[in-house]
Design a protein that fits this description.
The protein is α+β, with helices and mostly antiparallel strands. Helix content is 49%, strand content 14%. Strand 4 and strand 5 form a beta hairpin. Helix 2 packs antiparallel against helix 3. The chain starts with 9 loop residues before the first strand and ends in a 14-residue tail after the last helix.
């Protein structure tokens, strides 16, 4: 239940009552949309704000379709090997069984989070599964959508969505500070130290946010975390041989070069100053 006091918004994906409202809204307002659109309907005496991003919807649908096809291809390969075994043909590796294939496929489906769409028959002696087309259509209906419930009367739908995204952006920043930047909790008592700690957290977050914006503008499809993980593979080495110091930078791959170009950063070189460190 929502509080009686003004509440800006709460995520609507947790509710299952929106399907009947979304279907006509999809056909009337969102099908064929090229830019993000926001619409509002009443739900249980409150405002239901629906934001639809067509680009995000296409990406999510395509990603799911690719995952489903990969699982279907894997299932077809296993079924083919099972049929060959029944015909007396022997292949490489250990023989397959229906139970073993069923277990492996079931775990692959769960790992891909497609258990509602790809339904594995766990009671059948033979390996078999079905596709829940209703669940697949529902997932496609939710693609690219942000559902918000609010009782704030003086904001239009676009403002509600902007406020919620700003809040989500702040929460994402805290997660980055705790995980990627790894600024551990420090218990301060003096006001100056509290302000200094908060300033350091903010300063550390700025390059991370700038990196995310540049990666998004370059359409790399990479997160800041993934980009940093890739860049960590670039190393500067120093080796002493015959009383001489030899130094150099590890070989840059195309992935490194593309990433540095997207960030507008120069390629690392074997600076003579590094050998003095």
């Amino acid at each position: 239940m929502l509080a009686k006091d003004p509440l800006l918004a709460v995520p609507g994906r947790r509710y299952g009552d929106f399907v009947d409202l979304l279907s006509p809204m999809q056909k009337k307002h969102f099908d064929g949309a090229e830019t993000e659109r926001c619409r509002e309907v009443e739900w249980e005496g409150r405002r239901l704000i629906v934001a639809h991003n067509p680009e995000t919807a296409k990406e999510q649908t395509a990603k799911r379709d690719l995952a489903i096809k990969g699982l279907e291809d894997q299932a077809a390969d296993w079924v083919g090997k099972l049929v060959e075994q029944e015909d007396g043909k022997r292949g490489r590796g250990r023989p397959l069984s229906d139970g073993g294939v069923r277990a492996r496929f079931y775990h692959a489906v769960l790992e891909a989070r497609l258990g509602r769409i790809l339904c594995v028959d766990l009671k059948s002696e033979l390996f078999t599964y079905t596709i829940n087309r209703k669940a697949r259509k529902l997932a496609e209906l939710m693609d690219g959508k942000l559902l918000l419930v609010t009782n704030v009367p003086d904001l239009n739908p676009e403002q509600v969505v902007d406020r919620y995204k700003a809040l989500a952006d702040i929460e994402r920043g805290f997660r980055v500070l705790k995980s990627e930047i790894e600024i551990g909790p420090v218990h301060h008592r003096l006001p100056d130290r509290i302000r200094a700690h908060a300033s350091l957290c903010f300063i550390a977050l700025i390059p991370h946010r700038i990196m995310r914006q540049k990666l998004k503008a370059a359409k790399t499809g990479l997160s800041s975390e993934r980009a940093l993980e890739t860049l960590r593979r670039i190393q500067h080495h120093r080796v002493h041989l015959d009383n001489k110091l030899h130094s150099g930078v590890s070989t840059l791959t195309k992935e490194h070069a593309d990433l540095l170009s997207a960030l507008g950063a120069a390629k690392p070189t074997n600076d003579a100053q590094l050998s003095l460190l």
